[in-house]
Amino acid sequence: MTGLRRYAIDVGIAAAAGAVNAIMIHEAAEPGSVPPDAFAYTLGVLMTVPVVMHRSRPVAVLMACSVVLFAYYSLDYPGMSPISVLAAPLFSAVNAGHLRWAVGVVGMFFLGGYLIVVLQEKIEPLQAVSVFLANGALAVAVILLGEVVRSRRALAEETQERLRIAAEEREIAAARRVAEDRVRIARELHDTVAHSMATITVQARTALHVHGEDPASDQVRTALSTIRETSRRALRDMGDTLGVLRSVQGDDQGRPGLERLPALVEAVRAAGVPVELTVTGTSGRLAQAVDRAAYRILQESLTNVLRHAGPEVRARVTVAYEPDGVALEIADDGPGGEQEGGHGLNGMRERAEGLGGSFTAGPGDGGGFVVAAWLPRSAA
Prior knowledge:
The protein has helices at residues 3-27, 38-46, 58-74, 83-95, 99-120, 125-213, 218-246, 261-270, 288-308, 343-354, and strands spanning 275-280, 315-322, 325-332, 358-363, 369-376. The protein is α+β, with helices and mostly antiparallel strands. The protein has a five-stranded mixed beta sheet with strand order 1-2-3-5-4, covered by helices on one side.
């Protein structure tokens, strides 16, 4: 509704109220009252003029109309119902949330009129109630209508606000999931490529060294074969990881887990690092996220052994399946490992703690470097 149209409607309401007042003053007959004159009609019209602004200033209009109406009653003109003047201001005041003002003003007029009728005109109390019953019921109806409209509007606004908040929360959750997926994919790529490339580097160095001494040596063929298989495995792992971006369901089928641990150990052994593998307990049912995280922690740790432990190092891998989780330990006897705060260690810690597990890494008691992690069987 445009402002001009709303203003025209309010002017019409004020004019109608003024006309009703003029009719009521003309037809009013009350013994002992002052006969209506021009000033009475003037007051009848003036008390409806503020109604034009009842939407924008409901309480002020209600009070202005009440003051002029009280002046009319004070001059002892014939009585008339206040509801014809106050209906629109009452509705707007209640609709704006000023219920107490509306009830107070109406109650003042009706209670004052009732006391005057009972005490001054000596009418029986019950008979006086019947005199005000119809107009009182009309005033209550106007107030209730205003409250219903206000409540419905407030409910609509609250519903819209909830929908807006829900939409914002969905957007935030979606952005968070995207960010988490990016971090997870980056971590998967780091783990896959770092391990495989480290193995390839070591094997390439071995192949070049042996080839320089004896081109016909079987060790050259073994090293080159290892390079080929490791590269192929790296490409396959990378394809599985990137497949998450193309998958609608984003499932984890085909992702590496602890079933590939023997192959991982053999690849590290082929790279020239003796690895002792100890597995205790039974694997049972591990959540896919736990199975994959355990493999990645072992893979990253062994990669760190290849990269940082130095020559003639030995590694020991222990996997202990427990009733409520799986414990991992990777220890080497080299001079030292990756320092705290490296991306590899941070990634392993994030994997473990993100699933509700624990992670520690640091120099061993007898030298070397020890990585230990515990993961629950079910992801947190």
